[in-house]
Task: structure prediction
Amino acid sequence: MPNLNIDFAGIKAPNPFWLASAPPTNSGYQIMKAFDAGWGGAVWKTLGVPVINVSSRYGAVNYGGSRMAGFSNIELITDRSLADNLREMEEVKKYFPDHAVIASLMVETKEEWIQIIKDVENAGADGIELNFGCPHGMCERGMGSAVGQEPAVLQTIVEWVMEVANIPVITKLTPNISHIVDPGLAAARGGTNAISLINTIKSIVGIDLDTYAPYPVVDGKGTNGGYCGPAVKPIALEMVKELAQHPEIQNIPVSGIGGVETWRDAVEFILLGAGSVQVCTAVMHYGFGIVREMKAGLEQFMIDKGYETIYDFKGKALPNVTEWKHLNLKHKVVASIDNDKCIGCDLCYIACDDGAHQAIRIPDESGNRIPEIIEENCVGCNLCSLVCPVEECITMEQRDDGKQHLSWDDKTIANEVPTSFDDDRAGGKGHFVPTVQDALKHRKNNN
Ligand SMILES: Cc1cc2nc3c(=O)[nH]c(=O)nc-3n(C[C@H](O)[C@H](O)[C@H](O)COP(=O)(O)O)c2cc1C
Ligand code: SF4
Ligand code: SF4
Result:
């Protein structure tokens, strides 16, 4: 049986599945229940001077048949007293000494940081997470993402914390910044033991078309919220990768957060260098029980691949993530339709004709709706296979022999890249494009 244990910057846990700091970690009751269900760690709902929250406070993007494909909140840090939280933290640690309890913190002054760090250490926390991410409310008061967006300020606070902390410190970053490496470097230079990301993305999930107020609506008004859930995973994965590939940051453990719902999501974060994952929205949606399937799935993946610990595959995808300029321009794939699987919906034809490269035709013979790929027009963009509703009906087939490699970088060095607006070396030179009049050929007379 694979070993799921982790040692994350000195914080030990029986598995890499942690609850992110959020409503599921509001209380000792919830964290005890979660550990009992199988979670390996929990980052306590951010502690600080307790707040007053609004109602309502959550919004969602439902997409197609999926509820909460994206989730948004405008709640702040804990609204419970520090004393209550610390007492419960101590109790949880007594019952679950081998599980990771991390205290998320957000305060303002150096004195407050020093005091609250002492308090959570005394309560038995295994680590501290600095919340520099909250994109609403707290940032208006100079905390949360207001710190995460100012690398110099972030570094100063990390330095204050590192001077006094006796337990590992994780710096949690905001994605609301153009270049995640800047705060990542600031955290590293401040001496942080680890980094976690992402916190929520500043967003408006929708507008009520009767009241014209943004969701979630609070007495007829609203404000930008923090976006999370399955919709944000691609952004989180990219940011984890940015840090994991940076020479000054790559040795600092990273906890991946954002849209983790299944074991596959977790494996993707680990493959990009994460040493643990944190989950919020999926637990708010489905409850603590999802961890059973996550652990079983991860174990099965490790058995299938022959891995004994998560360190056997941590970061394994990183060598395959390169810059665009190094990709092979000689690699050539084209779409291929499996006629036996095709249901004749013609979605691929519409997508390719209107949204891509006019490389699909519908045969003229009446009754036959199975489209045909015009291979010489196909640029291998993938669009048709993405829109096709039938699994494996459109596949991309390789047409080059795999022997040649020529990148934009190589071409630049060889002085072979287009340099003027009408340069003959452009990639589209000679490629089929219908005439503008062809657009009206099938025009229906609606009058
Ligand atoms: C309702 C709600 C409250 C949150 N509160 C906190 C918080 O107090 N501290 C914090 O660091 N992050 C907070 N977060 C952010 C989560 O910890 C996490 O970074 C984010 O939701 C992305 O993960 P997910 O896609 O699994 O939800 C909150 C998120 C939600 C949805
Ligand atoms: S891969 Fe792109 S260009 Fe080729 S047929 Fe599909 S949509 Fe058209
Ligand atoms: S989208 Fe798929 S199922 Fe629909 S016509 Fe194209 S190949 Fe057939």
In short: Residues 20-23, 45-46, 71, 73, 75, 77, 104, 131, 133, 172, 199-200, 228-229, 232, 257-260, 279-282 surround flavin mononucleotide (ligand 1) (CB under 6 Å).
